[in-house]
Design brief:
- The chain has 190 residues and is mostly helical.
- It is rod-shaped, with a radius of gyration of 56 Å.
- The N terminus is likely disordered.
- InterPro entries: DUF3618.
């Protein structure tokens, strides 16, 4: 059964109850009037009381029978509750946003700290590896220097002291090799 039908039915039942109540009040007033009225003035007073009671009963019935008015009041009440719920939800959403923002900031700091630590670790390892390679190269240079025959060692040391003649000799050897390769290609040999 829909709310409208329920309200209409409820209003109808209320009207029937009210009519029965009014009839009962009318009968009791008539019984009082016939039984206890001692004069016209007292009878008028009893009629006035009965009218007042009937007026109250009719007003009560009208309030119960006003389905549209009750529905509008209920709708206004629900609208107020929905507004309050909306305010509460917005407040909760703002609070959740702040919490997420704080957590993201904390996570960013943690990641930044770990990246900085990792960078320092890599830098330290690179420096250590550079020292290791330098030490091994120095050792290998000493080994080669001591294992090469003395005349070659003297020539290498002279070349290190004055590199220009070594470079010129290397360029000349490179030119001769390049000329030979060009001649082979030109003659069809590969």
């Amino acid at each position: 059964m829909t709310d409208r039908k329920a309200g209409a039915t409820g209003g109808g039942k209320a009207a029937q109850k009210g009519a029965a109540k009014a009839a009962a009040a009318g009968k009791s007033a008539a019984a009082k009037a016939s039984a206890g009225a001692k004069g016209p003035e007292e009878l008028r007073s009893q009629i006035e009381r009965t009218r007042s009671e009937l007026g109250d009963t009719v007003a009560e019935l009208a309030g119960k029978a006003d389905v549209k008015g009750r529905a509008l009041a209920r709708a206004a009440d629900l609208k107020d509750k929905a507004g309050a719920m909306t305010v509460q939800l917005r407040s909760s959403a703002v609070q959740a946003g702040h919490v997420v923002q704080e957590q993201a900031a904390r996570a960013g700091h943690v990641v930044q700290d770990k990246a900085t630590h990792a960078g320092h670790t890599v830098q330290d390892r690179a420096v250590q590896a550079g020292h290791t390679v330098q030490g091994r190269a120095t050792h290998a240079g000493h080994v080669v220097e001591h294992s090469v025959p003395r005349p070659v060692r003297s020539a290498v040391q002279a070349g290190l002291r004055n590199p220009r003649p070594v470079l010129i000799a290397g360029a000349a050897v490179g030119a001769v090799i390049a000329a030979q390769m060009l001649r082979r290609r030109h003659n069809g040999h590969r």
